[in-house]
Amino acid sequence: MAYRIDPRVPVDAALRRAAQEQIDKAVRDLSGGEEERHEGVHEARKRFKKLRGLVRLLREAAPSFADAENARYREAGRTLSGVRDRTALIEALDGLEKRFEGEVATSSFAVVRTALELKRQAAIDAQGSPEDMASEALKGLKEGRLALDALVLGRKSSRNRERIVAAIEANYRRARRDLKAALASGHAEDFHDLRKRIKYLGMHLKLLEDLWPSVLAPLREEADRAAEALGRDHDYAVLHTEMLADPRSFGARADLDVVLALLDRHQAELRAGAAEICGRLLAEMPDAFAARIGRLWALAAKAPDPAAPPEPAPA
């Protein structure tokens, strides 16, 4: 089953099913051999983020559970983040070079990339064995599954839906505030906060996509586009800070200045594009957005299951 909530089943059962699928997939990602380990870690980190997006929906219905499980998956994901974060900076640099391919001819990218590769190797040497990292993450997944098995909400389905929608509204409301703050300040931290809210919005739309696939799926795709641009913006902000903090490790100053100038230029493009998408995604007032999701959920909960066998014709 996909990362979805089935609107026709009880809320707690639907959430357990969606979370269990992500846990099972993360376990498989981390249980592969040496050759698959790098990609497995990358995929597992995405599963942890999806699990965090899912349990955050329970902040109104089961706040203690939501806080504990969000912290569990955050810490488990961090055990896998060191080398992956280093790889993300290299990928960001490669993306920057591709953006200006044919427009700027320079060897500066190769110089900076070599420096980043050396830093990634140092992170690999310092992090301990991949088996130990995977073991810690797998422990978190096992504990999370046990906690998830015990999750039971009240019997009143409509009240449970209202609480989930309230959590979605809270994230949406905060995203609007973060968009305003980022546009006002231009600070990397504010754009990073916005990215997290939009990432969660995309996850929530994905989980609820079956309420109205033809409408919610395109919105989710737009949220993913904005989150990807803001994620790359964050990578550039980290890279920018690191290059200025230790410029000698990145080669000649002339090479550094070329990359920094192009980086600033592309960051401005990414932010402008993401802000335009976010403005449209967040155009509704939060209570109106939440009310629409609530009505769609109530309607979908009453709809017949298309996968159910047809009822026998009357004799």
Question: How is the secondary structure organized here?
Answer:
Layout: H1 11-30, H2 37-55, H3 63-78, H4 81-99, H5 108-126, H6 130-149, H7 157-185, H8 188-207, H9 213-245, H10 253-281, H11 286-302
Describe the structure.
The protein has a single domain (11-302), classed as CHAD domain, CATH 1.40.20. Helix content is 77%, strand content 0%. The protein has helices at residues 11-30, 37-55, 63-78, 81-99, 108-126, 130-149, 157-185, 188-207, 213-245, 253-281, 286-302. The longest helix has 33 residues, at 213-245. The radius of gyration is 22 Å and the shape is globular. The two termini are 36 Å apart.
At a glance:
The chain has 315 residues and is mainly α. The chain is built from eleven helices and no strands.
Index terms:
single chain; 315 residues; mainly alpha; CHAD domain; 11 helices; 77% helix; 0% strand
What low-confidence regions span 5 or more consecutive residues with pLDDT below 50?
none
Q: What do we call the CATH homologous superfamily?
A: CHAD domain
Structural class: mainly alpha
CATH architecture, please?
Alpha solenoid
- The tally of domains stands at 1
Distance between the termini: 36 Å
Global outline: globular
User: Count of DSSP helices?
Assistant: 11
> How is the biggest beta sheet arranged?
none
Task: Report the portion of residues in β strands.
Answer: under 5%
Report the strand count.
0
CATH level-3 fold name: CHAD domain
As a percent range, the share of helical residues equals over 70%
**Strand and helix order:** HHHHHHHHHHH
- CATH uppermost class: Mainly Alpha
Q: How large, in whole angstroms, is the Cα Rg?
A: 22 Å
Mean pLDDT: 90
